[in-house]
């Protein structure tokens, strides 16, 4: 059991954090409101959705001159396709899961491991942010001429790549950054 302890903790933490999020966060598909235990927490999600949409629009505009930002959340192409960035596209959930994963990493030497966690948690958040931006930009670029690819790209390929990226970061921390013996 000892060689698999960290992986088991990873899987349990991932599942618990994911289900905690799903059962406590409520938001509509339009992104008009987000609540957590009944409290309205729409503002940070609205801010991030607008921010991400503008950054994605800038990236897409580097590759295509056919993109138009029709409102603070929506990017359309002259082909008639487009995408809307809603509260669920902000990577706040993945950042929460990353925090949970890092908090449950079992330290070998609690003092030094916690110091290393203090700088590696924000590194993980930056990776979540960057991957999310690139994910949405790639989806937008692909669906300009292939709108039928949206669900495959969004719901399967990039979703699981996101979790694979989190797993890779976690492995990097557990194997290389967390001290094995001190």
Low-confidence stretches: none
What percent strand? 5-15%
- Overall radius of gyration: 18 Å
User: What is the domain total for the residues?
Assistant: 1
Number of DSSP helices? 5
Number of strands: 6
Name the helix and strand elements from N-terminus to C-terminus, one letter apiece.
HEEEHEEEHHH
Helical content stands at 55-70%
Structural class: mainly alpha
The pLDDT mean sits at 90
Secondary-structure blueprint:
Layout: H1 5-24, E1 25-27, E2 34-36, E3 39-40, H2 42-63, E4 67-71, E5 74-77, E6 82-84, H3 92-103, H4 110-143, H5 150-177
Antiparallel strand pairs: 1-2, 2-3, 4-5, 5-6
Helix pairs in contact: 1-3, 2-4, 3-4, 3-5, 4-5
Q: What features would you describe in this structure?
A:
The chain is mainly alpha-helical and 182 residues long. It has one domain (2-177). 64% of the residues lie in helices and 11% in strands. The chain has helices at 5-24, 42-63, 92-103, 110-143, 150-177; strands at residues 25-27, 34-36, 39-40, 67-71, 74-77, 82-84. It has a 3-stranded antiparallel β-sheet with strand order 1-2-3. β4 (67-71) and β5 form a beta hairpin. The two termini are 23 Å apart.
